[in-house]
Every structure is written in structure tokens, then in C-alpha cells.
Amino acid sequence: MPELPEELVLPADLVPAEPPNPPVTPKDAATVMLVRDQDGLEVFLLRRVVGMAFAGGMTVFPGGGVDRRDADASVAWHGPDPAWWAARFGCDEALARALVCAAVRETFEESGVLLAGPDGDSVVADTRPFHDARQELVERKYSFAGFLADHGLVLRADLLRPWANWVTPAEEPRRYDTRFFLAAMPEGQHADGATTEAEDVAWRRPADALDDWRSGARGLLPPTWMALAELSERDSVAAAMAAPRTVDKIIPKVVRTGTTLRVILPDDPRYPTAAAHLDARPGDALDLL
């Protein structure tokens, strides 16, 4: 795992002065790193609208929270079964099914890319006929299982790969236990980013996206920075999709130096002694579990 740079600091308002007590239970979520080969590996990125309650203004991958209906066992499914995904993400099969469905649904809602097809050997080539259904999914008028059934589609779980698992700090009023997936852009489809949650979208080589962050052009939170750094080590979609991954739950902590907040990970020597309160003296650590 690459080392987080010291200059990767968190927004000053990320940790509220009076955090919830007890901490909010994290909501299960899924995010998808959608990649393609074009002058090297590129990944699809969205810049969230400034002012949004969570990660406003930050550059992220498509994704969002699990809907309770994502666990519907009637979903037509092709690829590794929920038991396989449960073993990779360390959860039960019902949640694993919901996470995979949420990953595919959120990718469709936020990018217009649909990882599904008429059968297990094909993928939809043109998603424009599903424009209205896409909006109904966004508005939660329609379940993803219902959408697939009505259009005779099969969820292609085999097009996804498990990548990582990050948990939001305990002090935040909105918390997520997010599983990261990797998926190749289906041939013939177009990622449009037509979502009200994003002010702009772009395909970027991971190294270029990191350069954008260094220049101040884009803001990144640690999980996104780490994923981009890891993707930058792969020179093609095939190499990224074939990369062996062991997914461990990453629960960061934060150290405060004056008014600056930086994330530290479990392998950092400061991690075990991070302070468990917000009124720490300058230089003390804040426990963001």
C-alpha cells in the first residue's frame, strides 16, 4: 500500500466541534472505479457539488449508500455468487448481494454505465433507452431488481473486482462503510456523469489525477488518493483487473498539528496512541475510528 503524503490534509470542517455521542453507525456503501484503456489506463471521476453534506467539492468515483432493496434475492445474477463476495469483503451473504447490486445501480445512476446485459455473455451496448428508468432509480421510485426484471437484464457481477474497504471517522455526522470495486468500461457505452450530485466529470489517468491534486485543481480524500495511487501502478485495464487483492477494512485515525488534520493508517507508529477526544492539544492525535 502506498504511503499517504504529509501534504494530504483534511478539510478543516471535516471533524465537527461537537461530534455525535454515541457515534453514528456507518451506513454500508459501494463505489466503483470505472476504468478504460485510452493512451494508458484512465479512470472516471466526478467532482461532487460544493455544499453537499458529504465530501462536497471533492473528486470521487461513482457510488453511494446501499438501498435496502438492493438485497433482493430475485435479481438475475451472473458471475461470482454472494458467498464469494461475502468472503472477500468479510460480511454476510445478504449484505454482499446488496453491495454488488448497489455498486452496479449507483454506477448506472451517476455515470449512465450499466454493468448488465440480456444474458451472462453480453452487456448492454446502448443505455439511452433506459433514460427514464435511470431517473426513477435515482428518485427511488423503482428498485434495481424491478428495473432489471422489467427489461429482461442480468446483473454482471463477473465484470466487477473487489478492491478496498474504508470506514468514515466516528466523529462525522454521516458515516459510511464503503467497499471499493473495480470495473472495466463496457464496449459501446458512454459515461455521461449526468447526475445532480456532480458539477463536472472527467476521464483521467490516475497519475494525472494525482497531479491535479498536487496542483490544487482537485480535492481528494485519503481513500480516493490511495485508490488512484494504486491504479497508477497498473498500465492497462487488464493488468488492473488481474491484480491480486486482499481486502482489509481500513479504519483511519487523524493526527492534529495545530489546526491541521492528517490521516494516519494502522501501520503508522502514531496510530496506537491517537487520542480519543477532540479537545486535544496541538500535536495530539484525534481518534477517528
Automatic annotation (TrEMBL):
Keyword field contains Magnesium: yes
One term of GO molecular function: hydrolase activity, acting on acid anhydrides, in phosphorus-containing anhydrides
PROSITE patterns recorded: NUDIX
Record flagged with keyword Ligase: no
This protein's UniProt keywords: Hydrolase, Magnesium, Manganese, Metal-binding
Cofactor: Mg(2+); Mn(2+)
Domain Nudix hydrolase: 25-234
Protein name in UniProt: Nudix hydrolase domain-containing protein
Organism: Actinokineospora auranticolor
